[in-house]
Structures
1.
Amino acid sequence: MLPALALLLLAAHLFHNGAPVLAALALGTMALLGLRRAWAGRLLQFILLAAAIEWVLTAVVLAQTRMAHGAPYLRLVLILGAVAVFTALAALAFQAPRPKAWFRLGQARPSPSGAMPD
């Protein structure tokens, strides 16, 4: 599943950058993939979109560092850009029919009074 791989990549990135607690949290969020709750699906989407932004910011910082040292940077930008796109696509995967049904996304909630909405 795309989201699981994207979370695994995020955890590796965070661990490599000296944030083992955040890496563990990223791995722990994979447990949300097993919950059949709308809030879990939306939380995973939010985390994956935030991760995509993190990949873009990382690409910018590393590219600037390489440019300042006169080192090649294009391959780095292409790879991290691809990872950012992959992570964003993993967030969008929740809009596909099967994940939408699994997480019960887009289903109407019953009103507290039991009346049907107009």
2.
Amino acid sequence: MADEKNTDVMEAGAEAPVRARVSPFQFLEQVNKERKKVTWPSFKETWLTTVMVFIMVGLTMVFFAIVDSILLYGQMLLIGAKRLF
């Protein structure tokens, strides 16, 4: 088993495999084949994902506002400043 070479892993200093060149027409055919494999999300999936992103942004804003307020309060205690609130 030690004598077998793994063709997926390149050895140090080995050159990358050379790919055969194709004509622009063949390239566009290949691109079209790959494009047909793509599955697009439905409107419902897109809407739910968008709503979830906005909810997470809102929760993150609240979290950092609370942390910022706590740190500001601690800083004011350290330097002995008058309360801002």
3.
Amino acid sequence: MIGFESDEAILHKLRARLRRMTDEELIKFGKDVRKLAENPFQRQLEEARAEWKRRRKKRSEHSS
């Protein structure tokens, strides 16, 4: 028989695990999870927007 845990049970276990971590372990865990959760396309989109803004600013400086 295969058992599945509810989201609430999984969250409860995660919270218990986080409470047992040292500060250093908690910081490392947070950084590791952030890397896993990061959407690589979001970073590319942000860079494209920054480039667009840079170009528009450059154009407005030249047209003044």
4.
Amino acid sequence: MTTIALDLSGLKCPLPALKTRKALKPLRAGDRLQVHCTDPLSAIDIPNLVRETGDRVEIVERSETGIVFLIEKMGLPAEPKDPAGDGPL
């Protein structure tokens, strides 16, 4: 199990979510990604991304200087959903 730090301080939406998605792809199940963001929209974007990828946000810390997410890579990717909301594709 490995923990990788990703400093996305100073980046604005949508870059934190895009770079987080890219950093999660090569990780193995059980690995963790610690993401540091300063964009307030990351508090919405990163959890939504993690929900889409099927991974799990373990810890979220907020301070005056930013937000820290600890994301655990899960074993299987989330099943894609039909955009119409009718269930899996």
